[in-house]
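Fold it.
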Amino acid sequence: MSAVLHSFEARLEPVTPEWVDAIVAVEQRAYTHPWTRGNFIDSLAVGYHCQMLVAGHTLLGYFVAMKGVDEVHLLNITVAPEHQRQGWAPLMLEALCGWSRGQGAQWLWLEVRASNQRAMDVYARKGFRRVGVRKGYYPAFDNKREDAIVMSLRLDESDTAWGGVNALK
């Protein structure tokens, strides 16, 4: 899977400890309440599926997912702010779905901030359905909490929504 960014091909690679500082820098630019360096180091240490999308030496985005018995839980997916709205998130989601199917997962789950309509729209276009709310799930400003919208995708039903593997060609 690749796309062209300037004269470099974009490619997914496993996150390595050497990239964590660059990932944390993107995380801090992208979110008001970012994951910490420790969150990423811990995710690598426990063997979560951590992938980054790079073009040359440019970090475009990354995701972290946790495999369960017959499901995968997307914990973090981020596109660097300067590369947003260029189709990288759907590309990473498709790669995650392919990996999840290969792991025998039937479902892909995620939470998204209730205020993040743009992300919910991306997920909905890819076939995710809103299935619940986690009250006060995310930290917010002034010691308040924000609800999370729980979304899921049935992987064996998602080929139509994704346009299949040929959607990238």
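Confidence is low (pLDDT under 50) at residues 160-169.
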